[in-house]
Amino acid sequence: MRHHCYDRGMPRWDPRAEERLGDAALELFVEHGYENVTVEQITERAGLTRRTFSRYFTDKRDVLFAGSEQIPGVLSGAVRRADAALPPFQALLVALVDIGEWFADLVPHAARRRAVIASSPELQERERTKLAAVTDALAEALRERGTPTSRATLLAQVGIAVFRTAFERWTDEPEPADFAARVREAATELAASLAPAAGLATVVPEDH
């Protein structure tokens, strides 16, 4: 349960405090570079206190990854809910479509967030760690559906690639296509690219 707090110029608790801090942080990261921004500058821009910042975030890096710990559970849960009759990869694609609305609130800030992360090796490492956790969760959900371990891991990695491609395209151009359409688009492109793989054995000999 959240307690009321009293920040500068605000006589009562602000239900938008977390959003204001996040907006202020992104603005400052884009304007001055992630490394050059302090928590004090973020709270000053938002018109809130350090105490309020600490209620929502551990540090300035946490602003960019708030809520990301929920993603493995959200995605793997969607895989588990998919029709048991579906083959593994189809179940994964259905799951990606199913959770599109969960990410809708991230759309307005996604492009700026990506730009900030791309500018910092520290943030890139955090992003890789997050994606690894999501991949592991998806692979586990596929194994529970009876998919062999090595195949489950491969499909989870491919699924994450489809998800990232779809999400980036959706956030760069939210209209007219929705997230589900972007997932189908990315999956279709992947299938088309892999179609010639049946003849791979004739191109790459078994013995070198």
From TrEMBL:
<keyword id="KW-0805">Transcription regulation</keyword>
<feature type="DNA-binding region" description="H-T-H motif">
    <location>
        <begin position="38"/>
        <end position="57"/>
    </location>
</feature>
<dbReference type="InterPro" id="IPR050109">
    <property type="entry name" value="HTH-type_TetR-like_transc_reg"/>
</dbReference>
<dbReference type="GO" id="GO:0000976">
    <property type="term" value="F:transcription cis-regulatory region binding"/>
</dbReference>
<protein>
    <submittedName>
        <fullName>Transcriptional regulator, TetR family</fullName>
    </submittedName>
</protein>
<dbReference type="InterPro" id="IPR001647">
    <property type="entry name" value="HTH_TetR"/>
</dbReference>
<keyword id="KW-0238">DNA-binding</keyword>
<dbReference type="InterPro" id="IPR041347">
    <property type="entry name" value="MftR_C"/>
</dbReference>
<dbReference type="Pfam" id="PF00440">
    <property type="entry name" value="TetR_N"/>
</dbReference>
<dbReference type="InterPro" id="IPR009057">
    <property type="entry name" value="Homeodomain-like_sf"/>
</dbReference>
<dbReference type="InterPro" id="IPR023772">
    <property type="entry name" value="DNA-bd_HTH_TetR-type_CS"/>
</dbReference>
<dbReference type="Pfam" id="PF17754">
    <property type="entry name" value="TetR_C_14"/>
</dbReference>
<dbReference type="GO" id="GO:0003700">
    <property type="term" value="F:DNA-binding transcription factor activity"/>
</dbReference>
<feature type="domain" description="HTH tetR-type">
    <location>
        <begin position="15"/>
        <end position="75"/>
    </location>
</feature>
<keyword id="KW-0804">Transcription</keyword>
